[in-house]
Amino acid sequence: MSSGIVPPKSGSPLRKRASLQAPTTAEIHGGPRTRQLQPARSLPGPPHCLKHFPVDLRTSMDGKYKEIAEELFCRSLADSEMRSAPYEFPEDSPIEQLEERRQRLERQISQDVKLEPDILLRAKQDFLKIDSAADLQLFKEQGEDLVDHLPKDRDVLLEREFQRVTISGEETCGVPFTDLLDAAKSVVKALFIREKYMGLSFQSFCKTTARFLQNLSEKPLALRMYEEIPETPVAADAPVHPPFADQHPYEKCDPESMPGDLGFGLKMVNGVVHVYTKQDITDKTTELDLPYPDFPTSFIHICKSWAYMTPTSDGISAKSGHAHILAGWRMLPIPVIKSFCYRRLQYLSSKFQMHVLLNEMKELAAQKKVPHRDFYNIRKVDTHIHASSCMNQKHLLRFIKRAMKKHLEEIVHVEKGKEQTLKEVFETMNLTAYDLSVDTLDVHADRNTFHRFDKFNAKYNPIGESVLREIFIKTDNQVSGKYFAHIIKEVMFDLEESKYQNAELRLSIYGRSRDEWDKLAKWAVRHKVHSNNVRWLVQVPRLFDVYKTKKQLANFQEMLENIFLPLFEATIHPASHPELHLFLEHVDGFDSVDDESKPEHHIFNLDSPLPGNWTEEDNPPYSYYLYYTYANMVVLNHLRRKRGFHTFVLRPHCGEAGPIHHLVSGFMLSENISHGLLLRKAPVLQYLYYLAQIGIAMSPLSNNSLFLSYHRNPLPEYLSRGLVVSLSTDDPLQFHFTKEPLMEEYSIATQVWKLSSCDMCELARNSVLMSGFSHRVKKYWLGPNYWKEGPEGNDIRRTNVPDIRVAYRFETLCQELTLITQAVQTEELETIQEEDSLTMSSSLNTR
Ligand SMILES: [Zn+2]
C-alpha cells in the first residue's frame, strides 16, 4: 500500500491487465483515461485543488499528518509481522491498546493545534459567526423554528484532501485473472438484472453503479426505464427545515376537487391486475398498454438470474425450472465467486480501517469546523418501525390509565354479542387502574423471546389479553380506532418536538376483505393521523394459510385482489375512494412481514400453482409473496405515473432469519430491505448488496431479543465495508425504554461498537437517503444536490458528515466497480450480450 496513486507504466507489456489497476481520481469522475495524471499529492504543501486556501493554514499540519501517518504505517507493519498473513487482522484486537494509541495521537494533535494560531483564529471566527449577540437576537425574533439557518459559505468548509489508501501492481485483487473474470461476469449479470427490475417498477437504482454498467451496455442511457428525478430548485442556502403547507392534508376531503374518472376496467389475470380502457373487460383489445409481468417468462428469468451465479450454467429450459431455482440458490457458494467476493469484502473492511487510522482526526476536525451542527440536530429517520408498537411500554401504560379515568363508560368491545364498556372489560380481568404497572402490562421482550417468534408475537397483547390489543392498538374496532389514533398522534407529537427525528410507520393490510384499505384510510382521515415527520408503509403479513384454514379466502388470488384492486380503483377514479386517495399521498410502499424462520413447504418454481389455483392450506413461500407483490406494484406504478401520482416501492423484511434465498428475492425485487442479518453468511450476496448500494434498515436491539445477540450483529462490519445501513427500532414497545427509542438505538450502538461521531452521522444520512420522504424534503435535509454522486452531493452544514468520508465511500465504490467492469470488458462483450435474456422477457420490453 502506498499513499498516493502510482501512474501506470506506459510501456507495460501487459497493457490489457493494466486496466485492472485502481482507477485514478480522473477516471472516477468520468474523465478521459488518457489525461496526464496529476500526482495526487496530499503531502506536503497545499494540494493543487485547494490553492485558494490560506497556505499557512495547512502546511505545518500536513507535515504533522504525514509524520503521524508514517508512524502509524511503521507500527502497523510491525504489528503485521506477528501475524501469519499480511491481510489477516486479529479477531480480537486488544481494544485498550488501540484506544491508548488513539488517545495518544489525539493528545498530540490537540497540542499541535495549540501551536496553530491560524486554525484557532479561524475556528473562533466561525464560532463567532453564529454566536454573536446580533445573531442571537435574530434567532429570538425569528422564533424557535428558524434557528436552524446555515452558515453562509459552504466552500469555506470544503475539506476534500485526505490520506488515500491505494493498491498498485498488476493484479490488484489477489485472485488469478481467470477467477476474477468468472466472478466479475456473474456479478455484473446480477447487477444488470437488478437494474432491469428496478427500472421496470420505477424503483431507484444506484446512480454510480448504473453509470459503470452503462459502459458495458449497448443501449444508450436514455432508453432505460427509470428516469431522472424532476428538479424543483432549492437554494443552496435554504433553511434546514422545509416549508410545509399550513392546511392539514386531511382537512378537505372533497371528491369534487379530485382528479376525474378514467372509466377503466380491471381484472386480475394469473395473479396480476390488468387494466382495460373500457369498463367491459371481455374485449381483450381494450387492454391498456402497460408492462404486465407474466408468470412464466419472468419466473424463468428469476431462476435464470441465479443460475448465472455459476460460470458453468447450461441452457435452462422451462421444464427444469424447479431444479434450477434450487440450483440457483445452491450456486451462491460456488467456490470461485464465493472466495472472490469474500476477499473483496475483507479488503473493504481492512481498507476502511486504514482510512480511519489515517483520517480520523481530519474527519473530526471537519465536523468541529461546522458551526451549530452536531449529531443531535441532523436528520434521522427511523426506517423500520411498526405503528402498533411505536410507543414505549410506559407510554402505553400511561395512556391506558388515562383512558380508564376518562372513558370508563365508553363501549369499547363486543363479547359474544354483548356490548362491554371499558370498565366492564377491566372488571372481567379483575384489574383496576391502580394495579396496572409496566410489569403487569408485560409487553417487553425478554430472554424468553429469543428464537421464539410465537412468544414474541404474544407480547403484542397487553397483560396477555388480546382484547386490550384490539381496543388500544388496532385501527378497526368498536371505537373505530380512536385510542390507537390518539396514541400515535402523541408519538408524532414527540417526533415533532424533537424536530430532527422522523419515522416510517408500518400499518397493516391483511388481504382478507376488499374494504380494508378504505377502513384504514378513513381511520387516518377521520382522526387526522398525520405528521410531517412521519411517512407510512403498508405491511402485508404472510398469513394466507391462517385465512385459508378459517375459510376466509378461497385461493391466493383473492388475497391479492383484496390487496391491490382498491389501489387501482383509487388511482383510476380517486373520487370513488376519496379518503384512500388522500391517504395514499403519504404511503411510501409495501412491506412484507412475518416470521421468516417458519419452514417453507413449497419452492417457487414453474410447477407452482398460479395464485388462482393456490387453494391448499399451506402458505406460499416467501418468494411467491414477494414476486406477486412486485408484479402488481409494477402495473400500479405505471398507471399512477401516467396520472401524475407518486409511485410505490417494495421494502420487505428480508434476511432476518430463515433461508438465505429470501435475500435473493429481495435483491431482485425490492428497493431496500429491513434486517439483512443473513448477508453475513452469504459473501456473494453481501458483495452484490454493496455494489448495488441497497439500503438495509437494521435493528440490533430487536435482533438481540429475537435472533442474534448484540455482540454478533454484523452492523459494524457492514458499515465499515460501505454497505448502506441505517439504524431503526422495529418495535419500541417491546425493546426500548425511553421516549426517544431511535436515540436509544444510536446510543447503544455507539457505545458498544465504539462508533465515531462521523460514523453516527453517516448512519443518519443513510437513513434519510433510503427513506421514502420526498425528493424535495430531502433537498432541505441533506442539501440541494443530495442526489449527486460523491462529495458533491454532500452538504456538511446539514448532514455533519465530512466530505472526506463521502469521498472515501464514493472512490472506494468506483474502484470496486472499475475492477469488476473492466475485467468483463477485457473479454469479448458478446458473451454477455448473447445471453441477453438479461433484458426482461421481450414481451415486457416492447410494451
Ligand atoms: Zn419489523
From TrEMBL:
Cofactor: Zn(2+)
CDD domains: AMPD
Keywords, sorted A to Z: Hydrolase, Metal-binding, Nucleotide metabolism, Zinc
A UniProt-annotated Pfam family: AMP_deaminase
Record-linked Gene3D superfamilies: 4.10.800.20, Metal-dependent hydrolases (3.20.20.140)
Pathway annotation: Purine metabolism; IMP biosynthesis via salvage pathway; IMP from AMP: step 1/1
Keyword set includes Hydrolase: yes
Catalytic activity, reaction form: AMP + H2O + H(+) = IMP + NH4(+)
InterPro entries from the UniProt entry: A/AMP_deam_AS (IPR006650), AMPD (IPR006329), Metal_Hydrolase (IPR032466)
The keyword Nucleus belongs to this UniProt entry's keyword annotation: no
UniProt-annotated stretches for the region Disordered: 1-48
Coiled-coil regions listed: none
Enzyme Commission designation: 3.5.4.6
Family: Belongs to the metallo-dependent hydrolases superfamily. Adenosine and AMP deaminases family.
Stated name of the protein: AMP deaminase
Organism: Gekko japonicus (Schlegel's Japanese gecko)
Gene for this chain: AMPD2
